[in-house]
Amino acid sequence: MSKEAEAIRVDKELDLSNAGRGVWLVKVPKYMANKWEKAPGNIEVGKLKISKQVGQKAQVSLTLSDAVINIDPAEEIPRDHRLDVSVVTKQTLGVFSHAVTTTRDDPVPECEKQYMEGRIVQKLECRPYADHCYMKMKLESIRKASQPARQVKSLEKIVHNYKPVSDHKHNIEDRERKKAEGKKSRDDKNAVLDMLFNAFEKHQYYNIKDLVKITRQPISYLKEILKEVCDYNMKNPHKNMWELKKEYRHYKEDDKKDDDGTKDTMSDSDSD
Asked: Which Gene3D superfamilies does this one have (predicted)?
């Protein structure tokens, strides 16, 4: 193992020099934790007082300092608190710290160390006394919690804001266009017959989709006309295709049929 690898391995080892030290685990109210988070690191946050009488449990109290109370004067919090003590017996708890050393020029950690700061021997829960300040603070918190998230306000003048629209203009136009295309108007029957005869002069067989595109007529109306002048093939090689009835055909002799079928067809299947 190289020297660099050995140094990294040693730095990451857990320092147990303080493993025998006993520490307290204290649970504090949220309002106190918020004050402590806002406090600078060089001030006194409070004083802890432990009093013990013979044959009784130790009485522990905490008094917050003026510096903490005055961090936000508008937010009044209780100053005096009691700490309920319970001994940790059925589990082993510890406090650990983690330190990373870097340089100004190189943000990559040079060394990384972990420490065991002590073993938790007692749990304490910090509780305020039910004095006037505490009751006032609880009443204010209940009042804020009971306020609805949305409130109705009367407006004295017109408010010009961009209001959300239920549908955009381009979506409406697109739907109207598709609707107009979907509803094809019925043309005069003779005009439709002219379009059909002109189409069958170019090809002998058509499927219904192609005829709808050519005539732009509703499919039900178009089929009524086709049944009058056309035959529908049910067998191969032109299954599902339409062709003119014999009395309407006037193909040239060389365009009628080859040996293997017709010469000029539209081969797509009909979705009848």
From this structure: Winged helix-like DNA-binding domain superfamily/Winged helix DNA-binding domain (1.10.10.10)
Total domains in the chain come to 2
Is position 255 within any domain?
Answer: no
Name the one residue in this structure whose structure tokens are 């006309």.
225
Query: Could you read off the pLDDT of 238-263 as tens digits, one per residue?
Result: 899 999 998 888 755 444 444 444 44
Nearest CA to 31 out of 2, 71, 59 is that of 71
Cα–Cα distance between 99 and 102 in angstroms, integer? 10
Query: Does 131 map to a domain?
Result: yes
- Inform me whether the pLDDT recorded for 13 exceeds 80: no
pLDDT at 91: 80
Whether residue 23 sits in one domain with residue 116: yes
Structure tokens at 39: 């406090």
Kindly provide the b/e burial profile for residues 185-216, where b requires at least 16 CB atoms within 10 angstroms of the residue's own CB: eeeeeeebeebbeebbeebbbbbbebbbebbe
Verdict on whether the full-model pTM lies above 0.85 = no
- Please return the burial class of 4, using the count of CB atoms within 10 Å of its CB with bins 0-12, 13-18 and 19+: exposed
What are the tokens at 153?
């306000």
DSSP class of 58: P
Query: Cα(28)–Cα(14) distance, rounded to whole angstroms?
Result: 29
pLDDT value of residue 242: 92
Give the type of residue at 258: D
Whole-number Å distance between alpha carbons of 68 and 12: 37
